Amino acid sequence: MTTTAPPTWLDLPADTGFGVGNLPYGVFSTPGTGRRTGVAIGDLVLDLAAATGDGVHATGSLNAFLARGPEAWRELRAQLTAWFTDDGHRGTVAPHLVPRSQVTMHLPVEVADYVDFYSSQHHAENLGRMFRPDSEPLTPNWKHLPIGYHGRAGTVQVSGTPVLRPSGQRKAPTDDAPTFGPSQRLDIEAEIGFVVGTPSEPGTRVPLSAFPDHVFGACVVNDWSARDLQSWEYVPLGPFLGKSFLTSVSPWVVPLAALEAARVTPPARDPRPLPYLDDTDGEPWGLDIAIEVRLNGEIVSCPPFDLMYWTPAQQLAHMTVNGASLRTGDLYASGTVSGPQADQRGSFIELSWGGKEPLRLPDGTTRTFLEDGDLVTITATAPGPHGTRIAFGDVTGRIEPAR
Ligand code: MN
């Protein structure tokens, strides 16, 4: 394998995660212009609507392009690669490049349905130990199927959207009755999300092998969670208002095609999954994505995605095994990513062990859950082609006081 990135006529920063091997898609605008599709390259955005003249990129979301399917995705990626690597295209392409510092990013996808999984064994065991100390950390079904729930598609928002502290019913186990008020245990969940492009017919299943035919790409997700609302309401039907107030996504969707070098073998599964989930003898979709969580600029956690027990291909196979159809724009998230080390936990409830062991911050202060004014930024990178590094866009949010 060569370690030389493809040559490009663009003067890209040496350490850019947005090189020719990445080419993520997003929706942007500049002052006084409408929303359109762009591709990030270095510190620039290529205005795809202008560069291609294709109206599908002027619709204000990626959905219409994603609906065209994998052949169209491959063709455009090949076109973009040629444009950026062949100096002969410089004259026609360069006029459509805009500095990323001058654009406003928008929600890239009109989210159809939203599902959130629970596929990190370390995260599930940590929460099991905290919430059910007298029983096994994993529920009996956990190693047989990727557990998930349907979230609220309409409150998925792009990175930078303010996080209004939610209010609701809270009841600690020691309280006699619930009270109403602002969440006192506002938390994050560091996750990777997957965006469906190609729909499926009702009554059909999407097998493991068809994952890249349906899923276009990946983004970073912060599944904001109000733990006090969640712990009171979740039995017996699962997450509801403790999650539905906001889910933030990074503005750039990294195509699966950019993640080929990031593919790794997932952890061994014991027991062996049922056949529709069994990737033992196939080409599994473990992904070596390194996540970083920052609180007010300081790294507090580095969750490793390569340790996820269930892959996004298995999640998709499970999501459709009952015949439920996919729609263009469906988003499903991995579940909180946590590793075995204390500094690899993807939520503050784990980092502070249920609030009992406050996290010590570099400035000497401590934190259990989020305070008003806190800024959370989650970033992710992965191995790219030719020894390069692929960057995902950041997903940020600042906590605002309850109203
Ligand atoms: Mn979650």
Q: Can you tell me about this structure?
A:
- The protein is α+β, with helices and mostly antiparallel strands.
- It folds into 2 domains: 25-106, Roll (SH3 type barrels); 114-400, Fumarylacetoacetate hydrolase, domain 2.
- The chain is 16% helix and 26% strand.
- The chain is built from 9 helices and 27 strands.
- The chain has helices at 48-52, 63-66, 70-85, 90-93, 121-131, 211-214, 227-233, 312-320, 348-351, and strands at 25-29, 36-41, 44-47, 97-99, 104-106, 114-117, 148-150, 156-158, 163-164, 167-170, 179-182, 186-187, 190-196, 215-222, 225-226, 247-249, 254-255, 263-264, 286-287, 290-295, 298-301, 331-333, 359-360, 366-367, 375-383, 389-391, 395-400.
- Strands 6, 7, 8, 13, 14, 16, 17 and 22 form an 8-stranded mixed sheet that branches. Strands 9, 20, 21, 25, 26 and 27 form a 6-stranded mixed sheet that branches.
- A hairpin with a 5-residue loop joins β23 and β24 (366-367).
- The model has no long low-confidence stretch (mean pLDDT 96).
- The site of manganese (II) ion has 6 residues, from loops.
